[in-house]
Write a structure and sequence with these properties.
Chain lengths: 980, 980
C-alpha cells in the first residue's frame, strides 16, 4: 500500500478533473487477465485488479476506487472497468471503439472463470451490475443497470441457486424495468403503473409484500410493455444485455440531467464516463443479508468511527427509494457483529489510506461483507474546516494538505448569516440554492408590486415561475428571489448572484400562480400575496413565516479577530505577513455552541496556515474609512482600489454638477478649489484607517454624465413642463418633440433646460467606451491635479501628525504609455509642489490600471512609466469579450450557459484562455521591462477562489477584493501556495 | 558615383524616415578632417565630404544631400553637419553631448584651414550659415542663422575684403536681427519697427535702398534692442555665436510651429533635427552675384529641363520675403550664360543621380555658382502620376519604382470632383485643406440654422471660428465646413474627415462674427448669412459665390474602365488578377484637356502595374446591387462585406418592428417567413452584380433596438400624449415621470406604449457591448437560419439560371469557437436542406469576423470552425482601445492629437502596435491551425494606404473597402508588393 501520494486525485473540494492520463499497461499491478491487444491499440478495459485511485480520469472515480480497494485487499466483487476514453470515442464518432467488443469478451471470460459461473447461463448464473462512473462525482446523474444476465431461462436457475423463487423473479422484473427505461427508453411511469396495479390486486402495501407469482406475472407484463413501447423486445441474450447497457451508460453522459448538473458544477462536457461491470452480490437474500452506506467519520463533526445506515434484506435501490426505514449502523453490531467488526476494520484501512473521510456502499450477502464503492465523502462547509483540523491533529495530513482540504467557496458560505435551523419549521419546499444568504419577506408575484412594496418600506420576496429581464426592477427591490423553474444558471440565479441577493430557484414542488397571486405547495398548502416566507439561498430551503436569522459566527470571529490585531499593531510593523486573527478561545461566545467554537477554532487555525504560506498579498477595494477599517479587520494588507468617483456623489453632487456645467475656466477652477478640501478629508480617513499599509487611490474613472440626471427622465420632465406651460397659453402641439419642449419660463425650468443641454452634450451612445478615466483627466484641465494634490496633502498632513500614510496613485483606462507619461508628469509636479510647501519628502508611487487590451498588449512600454500595474479584470473582460456586464449578464448569459458557450460567467471567474492569457502576457512583459514592477489585480475576480489561484500562478503580487471577500482571498492565496 | 541604390531614402512620397543608422565612421568616404574621438564615443559631427544621401536619419535631409552633392563633385561650399543624435541627446537631457564642443572645434579648424580664413577673424573673416535639417523635410518650420562670425570688429574686415561697406553692414544687421529673434527670443516685430523707422528716415522705399550708414546705425540700434529685450548682450565672440545658434536650431525642433507641422504630416516627434554649418557664400555682392531656386523638371508636366526663379544681387531670404520680383531662370542665360550652363549641367547630373525631379537652391557669388541645397522636389498629385510615367519612359526607373513614386493618398485626391480653377474668382482666403472635396452653399454661422436650412433643402456651408461637439448637428447637415481657427487635427477637421464632408480650417485671414452672422475678409469684404460661398477642402481655398465644379476625370476613367471590362468578361474568368482598366485612349474625352488625358493615361498605366504585381486582392464593402456594380467597375474582385442590417431598414421597418415585438414563437416565425423572400431578392441582386466573384454576406450584426425609435424621443412623445389626455380630464401631475405617463387611451397611444415597453426592454447602456451579432443569432431562434436560407436559395436559383454565385457566410462578433460551432452547425444543416430541395450541390464557406480581442487571442481554436477570417478592424479598434468611434472621435481625439497621444486617429490608420499586433498574432495562429484559412480585412482600414501596406506585410489575402476606395487599395496593394 504505497502512501507516498499526498494529493488524492479526487477530493470533493477539487472540482477540476485530474489530467487525463493515457492508459499505461505498465502501470497495471496485476497480471493481465485478458490477452493484451496489439501494440498500436489503446486498451479500453481494465480489470479491477489492474488500476489504482490515481486513474479517475481514465477509469472514473468509481472504477479507480474499486481498483484501489482491490489493491488494498478489501472484499470487492470482481469486475472490470471500461474507460472514459472509450466513452469519448463513442460520443465523438457515434460508435464504440472497434476493439472494445473483443476486450470486453476477454475480461468477461476472465471474470467468469474466476467466479466459476457464466453470465446468465448454467446452474449458478453470473449476474453483473453495469454502473456509470465519471472522473468527477455526479451522483445519480447517470444510469445504472443491475442484474444483467437474467433471462427467461436463467431466472429459474437463479431461483434454484438462491433457493428463493421470489428473490429471482423480483430481480428479473427489476432488470426488465431498469433495462426498459434506461436502455430502451420506455417511459418509467408505465412500469410504475403496472407495479401499483399489481400491488392493489395482491393487496400488498409495498413491493416487498408482492409474492413470487405476482412478480413473475409482472416480469411477463413488463416484457410485453417493452416490446410495445421500446424499440425492440427485451433481449434474451445475456451478452447483448451487457453491450446495450454499456452503451446506455455512455449515452447517459449526454442526458439532460447530466448536462445540467455539469453546468452547475462547472464540470467540463467532454470528459465522458467510465463503465464498471461488476459481479452482482445480493443484499436481499434473507435476514442475513442487507445493504448500507457508511461514513468513516462523522461528516458533521469529523469524529472518527463509522456512521451510516443499514437496511436488512434489501438492495441498494431500496435505500434510495426510502420504501423501508433504515436503521443506524450501530444496529448492525447487534444484527451481525462479525460483519460490523469487519466494516470497522475496513473503514479504518480506508481512512488511513485516503487520509480523509470516505463514504462507502456495502452489501452483506448471506453474512459476507462486500464493498461496492468508496469515495472521499462530501461534507458541509463547516465540517470541512473541522475535519481538516482533526486530520491534522491526528497526523494523517500536514498543514499544506489541510489547507487544500477546504475551499474559499466553503469559507464564503460560512460568512453568510443563516437561518436558525432549530427554530425553523419543516420547509415548504426545497429548490436549488442559487445565491447564498437568508432572506425573509412578504411573498409577491409580480415585479411591479415588488418594487412598489419595497419602496413603501416592506421587505419582499419576489416569487416567479421563472424570471426574465422584465423582472429586473422587482429583483432589485426584493430581499430574496424564489422561482419554481430553472437551475443555477437560470436568469434568476445569474442575476441574483450578480446582485448578491439570496435566491432559491427550481423549487419544482411549488406551483406559482401569478395570475391569482399565490403559490401552492406539493402538500396543497397555499401562500398568498403578502404572506411572509423565508428563503435560504444556501440550502435551497423555503419556509412559511419568518424564520429567525442567526449571524454567522465565522463572520463575528473575523470582525473580532481584526479588532484584536488592530489594537496591538497600528504602525508599519503591522504590515507583516503574520496572521491577523485573534485566538478564538476568547469568545466563540454568545450564541455559538461548542460546535461553533470548534468551527471558529478550525477557521482560525487554517487562516493562520494560509497567511503563513501564501505568496499573494491580499488588499481590499474600499472607498470609505469605514470600509477600510472593516477590510483591515478582515485581514486586508492595504487598499488596492479606492474609487474616488464614489466621493463625488451624495451631498457633493451639486458641487460636481457645477463643475460639469462650468462655462468658464475660472468657474471650473473655483469648483475644483472647493472640492479639494473635501477630497483631502476623504483620503485622510483612508490613510488613518490603513495606517502603515498601502492605499491605492484611483483617479476619477466614470464619465461625467454619470453625475447628472438620466437623459430620458430629464427630457420627459422638461417636455412635460413645456407642455404644461403651453397648456396655460393654449394647448401642447401634437408634434412637440424632446428638443422643442424646453421653453420653460420659470427659474426651475431654465435650470432644467440648462441641465438638459449639458446632459445632451455629454450623452454618449456607449459611455463605457467614452470619455472617462485618463481621457477625462487629459481633457478636463485641473481635475486630476486636484485629486493628486488632495492625496499628497492628506499624506503630508498625516505624516506630519506622526502617521505612516503609504499612498499610491493609480491612473484608470490607460491605453498607451503616452497617456500615462502625460498624467504622470503633471502628478509628479503636483506632489513635488506639496512636498515643498509642507517641507517634507513625499514619495508616492504612480501606476496604472491595465484594463484595456491595448495596455496589456503594449505592457512592456507602459511599464516604463508605471511603478505598478493593477489589472482591472472587470473592464478587461468587457473589452476582451466585447460585452458589458450591465447589458448582457441578464440578457443572454442564461442562453450562453445553457448552450455551453460558458461554463461560468467570465465576470465571476476569470476567463483563463482569453482574458487570463492577456493578463499573463502583460505581467511578463511588464516585469521584463521593469523588474521591480508591482503587480496586482483589483477586479471582482480578486475575491473569486478559482481566479485567485490563477493570479497566484501567473505571479502577481496581490489581489484586491471587496472587504467581505478578503478572508476568502487570503485562504485561496494560501491554498494556491499549498498547491491546490 | 555609385548608382546601385534603387530607393532614395527621402522622396516626397515616403513620409517615413529611413531607419536611424548609428554613425559609422567606416562608411565615411573621405579621410577624417578631425581627429577621431575615443573608441567608445559616438561621433556627432561629420564633414560634408564624409556622408552620403542615405544618411538622412543621421544627418538630416539637407546634410545628407549636401554630402551627396559633395561626393558628386558638385560645387558645394565646405562645411559640416551636427547629427540628429546630438539633437536627440540634447532634447532628452537638456545639455549637448559632452564631446560635441570638441568635435565642432576640430571640424571648424579643418574648415578654417581649408578656406584659409578664420571664423570672424582676420582680414578675410570666415562667416558660416547655421541651418536646420531634419530627416523629413519640414520647410520653414525650424530656424536658420546666416552670417555667423560677424562682430563689431570683423564687420570692418568684411567690408574691406568685399570692397563693399554697405554689404558688410547689411550682413551684420541681418545677423543681429536673426540671432536676436532666433537665439535670444527678442520679438522680431521690434526689429521690423526699427527697420521701417530707418526706411522712413532715409526715404528708402525698400531695405535695399538703405545706405551703409543707416545700416551701421541700425546694427547699433539692434544691439541695444538685444541687450534690453534678450537675455544677454549680442555676443562678440564668433565661436559663442556659433554654439548658441546650434543650440537654437536644436530648440526649434520643439517650437510650436514645428510640432504642429509634424502632427499634420504624421512625422514622429522624437527624430530631432541635424544642424548644417556651412561657409557663407554671398549672392548680394553686386550684379555678378545672385541667388535662385530651380527644379530639374517641370513639377506640373514632368518635362525635363530647368525651371525656376532667379534674383540678381540678393540673398536667399530676399527671395522668400518677396521684396523684389524674381525673373525666370531663362533670364539667367542672358545675364550669366556660363553660370546658366553650369546649372544645366549640374541639374542633369542630379536628375540622373536621383532619378527623380529635384529642386535646388543656388547662389552665384561674383560669377561663381554654388549649390546650397537639393532635395527630391514636391509635386501635385497629378504631376506625381505623370512624372512617374515619364521617368519610366526615360528608362530612369523601373515599373516597381514607378509604383513607389505615387501614393494612394494622391490617387484619392484625384478622385474628388474639384472646382474649375479657370472659372474661379480670386479666393477670398486660403486655409488648410482639411477634408478634401468641393462644396458650394449658403454661409451659415450657427449649427441650428445650418440644420434648419438643410432640412428645408438648402445647401449650406457651416462657418465657425472653430467647432465643438455642440456643432455636430450643423456639421452633419452642411455640405462643407469652414473655420478660421485650428489645423488639420482640430475638431472641425477630424469630424469632417470622418463624415467625408469637405472642410477648410484655419483660414485665419477671415474674421468670423457669429453674433452678427457674417464673416469679414482680410481685405475688408463681408459675407453675410445666406450668401453663397465655395470651399475647396483639397487646396484650402475659399471663394465668394458659386464656383463651377468639374467632375474628376480620373473618377470618370474608373467608371468607364470598369464598364469596358465588365462588358467583356462576365463569368468566373473575370476573377483573374488582370487589370480591369480600359485603355484610356478612347475617351479622356469631354471636358478633359490634353493634360487630363496624359494624367488618365498615367493612372491607367500605373494601376495596370499595381494589379500585376500586387499579392493582396481587393474586394469592396457593398450592401446593394448598385454598390456592388460600381465596386466591380472600380476593380473590386468580389464583396468582402455585405451588411445585411441595411436590408432591414426602409420599407421593411414595419416588418422588422413586428419581428421584435412578436410575443409568440408563431408570430416571430411568421415574420421571418415574410422576410425570407425579401432577403433572398437582396442576395440575388448581389450575386448577379458580382457573378463569378465571391460575395461575403455578414449575418445580422446590430442590436435589435437599432430598428426601433429612440428611447428618449419615444418617452417624451408618450409622456406628452399622457399629459394631454390628463389635461382633458384635469391637469398633468407635477411628478409625472417617463414611467407613469404612458396611459394613453387611443389606439395610437396604445401602440406607442407597447413600443415604448419594447424599447425599454431592449434598451442597453452600451449597445456596442450588448446583444448583437452572433449573440442575437443564438438568442433569437430562426433569425440566422432565415438569413442563411435566403443566401442559399438565392445562390441555388442563380446557379440554376446559369450564373456563377460564390457566396460566403460570415458570422459577426464571435468571441469563442463554441459560438461559431453552434451557428455553423445550424447553417450547414440549412444549406444542406436547400441543396436537397433544389437538387444541386451547394458549397458555401462559413467564416467569422475577427473583431473582438478574444477571438484574436484564441484564433487558433476559432480557426478550427472557420473557412475564413475577416478582420473587423473597426470593432477591434474599439475594443482594443476601449473607445467607441461615435462617442470619442469628436470628443477627445482633438486633445489626443494635440498632446501627441495619437499621430493619427486609429480608426483612420491601423494602430500597428496594439490592434495590428493582435491582427498579426491571430493571422499567424489561424494559419497555423488551418493552412488554407483565407484571411481578409473589412474594416474601413481596408481602404487606408498605410493600413493596406500593413495588411500586405502580415500576409492577408485580401482587403475589402468602400467602392470608392477600391482604386486606392489596388494601388497601395501594388505599392506594398513593390516594396513601398
Amino acid at each position: 500500500m504505497p502512501e507516498t501520494q499526498t494529493t488524492p486525485s479526487l477530493t470533493p473540494h477539487d472540482p477540476s478533473p485530474a489530467p487525463a492520463a493515457a492508459p499505461s499497461p505498465a502501470a497495471a499491478g496485476a497480471a493481465l487477465a485478458a490477452p493484451p491487444p496489439g501494440p498500436a491499440a489503446v486498451r479500453h478495459v481494465f480489470d479491477f485488479a489492474e488500476g489504482h485511485r490515481e486513474q479517475a480520469a481514465l477509469l472514473g472515480g468509481k472504477g479507480a476506487n474499486l481498483a484501489e480497494m482491490t489493491r488494498l485487499g478489501l472484499p470487492v466483487p470482481p469486475g472490470f472497468t471500461i474507460t472514459t476514453a472509450a466513452c469519448r470515442e463513442y460520443l465523438r464518432t457515434g460508435a464504440e471503439p472497434a476493439t472494445l467488443g473483443g476486450e470486453v469478451s476477454a475480461h468477461l471470460a476472465a471474470l467468469e472463470e474466476r467466479m466459476g459461473r457464466r453470465l446468465g447461463r448454467g446452474a449458478a448464473p453470473l449476474l453483473v451490475s453495469v454502473r456509470s462512473g465519471a472522473a468527477v462525482s455526479m451522483p445519480g446523474m447517470m444510469e445504472t443497470v443491475l442484474n444483467v444476465g437474467l433471462t427467461d431461462s436463467s431466472v429459474h436457475s437463479l431461483a434454484a441457486w438462491a433457493g428463493d423463487e421470489r428473490f429471482a423473479w423480483d430481480s428479473y422484473r427489476r432488470l426488465i424495468q431498469m433495462f426498459g427505461a434506461t436502455v430502451l427508453g420506455v417511459d418509467s411511469g408505465l412500469f410504475e403503473e403496472r407495479l401499483s396495479r399489481a400491488r392493489r390486486a395482491a393487496h400488498a402495501p409495498t413491493d416487498a409484500a408482492l409474492p413470487a407469482a405476482a412478480l413473475r406475472d409482472l416480469a411477463g407484463e413488463f416484457q410485453e410493455l417493452v416490446r410495445a413501447e421500446g424499440r425492440r423486445a427485451f433481449p434474451q441474450e445475456p451478452r447483448e444485455q451487457l453491450d446495450l447497457a454499456v452503451r446506455a451508460v455512455f449515452d447517459s453522459w449526454q442526458g439532460e440531467r447530466a448536462r445540467l448538473y455539469r453546468r452547475q458544477e462547472r464540470i467540463p462536457d467532454d470528459l465522458g464516463t467510465a463503465v464498471t461491470v461488476c459481479a452482482m452480490v445480493f443484499g436481499n437474500l434473507g435476514p442475513d443479508s442487507g445493504t448500507g452506506v457508511a461514513f468513516t467519520r462523522d461528516p458533521a463533526t469529523g469524529q472518527r468511527g463509522i456512521y451510516g445506515d443499514y437496511l436488512q434484506n434489501a438492495q441498494g435501490e431500496d435505500v434510495v427509494a426510502g420504501v423501508r426505514n433504515t436503521v443506524p449502523l450501530s444496529e448492525l453490531a447487534r444484527l451481525d457483529p462479525a460483519s460490523h467488526a469487519e466494516l470497522r476494520r475496513i473503514t479504518a484501512v480506508l481512512e488511513n489510506h485516503y487520509r480523509d473521510l470516505c463514504d462507502v456502499e456495502f452489501t452483506i450477502e448471506r453474512g459476507r461483507l462486500w464493498m461496492l464503492q468508496t469515495r472521499v465523502g462530501k461534507r458541509t462547509a463547516a465540517a470541512a474546516f473541522r475535519i481538516a483540523c482533526q486530520l491534522l491533529d491526528e497526523g494523517l495530513i500536514d498543514e499544506r494538505e489541510a489547507l487544500r482540504r477546504v475551499t474559499g467557496g466553503q469559507l464564503a458560505r460560512l460568512l453568510f448569516p443563516r437561518f436558525d435551523e432549530e427554530a425553523a419549521p419543516a420547509p415548504l419546499a426545497r429548490g436549488i440554492g442559487a445565491s447564498p444568504g437568508a432572506a425573509v419577506g412578504a411573498a409577491v408575484f409580480d415585479s411591479a408590486t415588488a418594487a412598489q412594496w419595497a419602496e413603501a418600506g416592506r421587505a419582499v420576496i419576489l416569487v416567479r415561475r421563472e424570471t426574465s429581464p422584465d423582472d429586473l426592477g422587482g429583483m432589485l427591490a426584493a430581499r430574496g428571489i424564489l422561482t419554481s423553474r430553472g437551475g443555477k444558471t437560470s436568469h434568476a440565479a445569474v442575476v441574483a448572484r450578480g446582485m448578491g441577493t439570496p435566491c432559491v430557484c427550481g423549487a419544482e414542488a411549488l406551483e406559482v400562480d401569478a395570475a391569482n397571486r399565490r403559490l401552492t405547495t406539493a402538500g396543497g398548502g397555499v401562500v398568498r400575496e403578502g404572506e411572509v416566507i423565508s428563503v435560504d439561498g444556501g440550502t435551497g430551503r423555503v419556509y412559511r413565516g419568518e424564520v429567525p436569522v442567526v449571524p454567522s459566527e465565522v463572520m463575528e470571529y473575523f470582525e473580532r479577530a481584526g479588532q484584536a490585531a488592530g489594537a496591538g499593531s497600528a504602525g508599519r510593523a503591522a504590515a507583516s505577513r503574520a496572521p491577523q486573527a485573534a485566538a478564538p478561545g476568547a469568545g466563540a461566545g454568545a450564541g455559538a455552541g461548542a460546535g461553533a467554537g470548534e468551527l471558529v477554532a478550525a477557521v482560525h487555525r487554517l487562516m493562520g496556515i494560509a497567511d503563513r504560506v501564501r505568496r499573494l498579498d491580499v488588499r481590499a477595494n474600499a472607498d470609505t474609512a469605514q470600509d477600510a477599517a472593516r477590510a483591515r479587520r478582515f485581514g486586508a494588507r492595504g487598499i488596492g482600489l479606492a474609487r474616488t468617483e464614489h466621493m463625488f456623489l451624495g451631498e457633493r453632487r451639486p458641487l460636481v454638477e457645477r463643475l460639469i456645467l462650468a462655462e468658464t475656466e475660472a468657474e471650473r477652477r473655483e469648483v475644483l478649489r472647493e472640492l479639494l478640501p473635501l477630497q483631502r478629508a476623504d483620503f485622510t480617513g483612508l490613510f488613518e484607517a490603513m495606517d502603515g499599509l498601502p492605499v491605492t487611490v484611483r483617479l476619477l474613472d466614470p464619465p461625467l454624465h454619470e453625475f447628472l440626471p438620466d437623459l430620458t427622465d430629464l427630457s420627459v420632465r422638461v417636455a412635460l413642463r413645456g407642455a404644461r406651460e403651453a397648456g396655460h397659453a393654449g394647448s401642447a402641439g401634437e408634434g412637440a418633440g424632446a428638443g422643442d419642449a424646453g421653453g420653460a419660463g420659470d427659474a426651475a425650468g431654465r435650470a432644467d433646460a440648462r441641465l438638459l443641454a449639458a446632459v445632451r452634450r455629454l450623452h454618449e451612445q456607449n459611455p463605457m467606451l467614452g470619455l472617462r478615466g485618463v481621457r477625462l483627466g487629459l481633457v478636463v484641465p485641473g481635475l486630476f491635479a486636484m485629486q493628486v494634490r488632495a492625496v499628497a496633502e492628506a499624506a503630508a498632513d498625516r505624516a506630519l501628525a506622526g502617521g505612516t500614510p503609504l499612498p499610491e496613485i493609480m491612473i484608470p483606462l490607460v491605453g498607451t504609455v503616452r497617456e500615462l507619461e502625460l498624467v504622470r508628469a503633471e502628478a509628479e509636479e503636483t506632489v513635488a509642489g506639496v512636498a515643498r510647501a509642507r517641507g517634507l519628502a513625499l514619495r508616492i508611487p504612480i501606476g496604472t490600471m491595465i484594463e484595456l487590451p491595448r495596455a496589456a498588449l503594449t505592457a512592456g512600454r507602459v511599464a516604463t512609466a508605471a511603478d505598478f500595474f493593477s489589472f482591472g479584470t472587470n473592464d478587461l473582460t468587457q473589452t476582451v469579450w466585447g460585452f458589458s456586464r450591465d447589458d448582457v449578464e441578464a440578457g443572454f448569459f442564461a442562453t450562453y450557459l445553457e448552450k455551453g458557450v460558458f461554463q461560468v460567467s467570465p465576470f465571476e471567474t476569470i476567463d483563463v484562455e482569453g482574458v487570463g492569457a492577456l493578463v499573463e502576457t502583460a505581467a511578463r512583459a511588464g516585469r521584463a521591462a521593469r523588474g521591480d514592477l508591482k503587480l496586482g489585480v483589483c477586479g471582482e475576480h480578486g475575491g473569486d477562489p478559482d481566479s485567485v489561484r490563477f493570479f497566484h500562478r501567473v505571479g502577481l503580487d496581490y489581489v484586491s477584493c471587496s472587504p467581505f471577500r478578503v478572508p476568502v482571498a487570503r485562504l485561496e492565496a494560501g491554498r494556491a501556495a499549498a498547491g491546490a
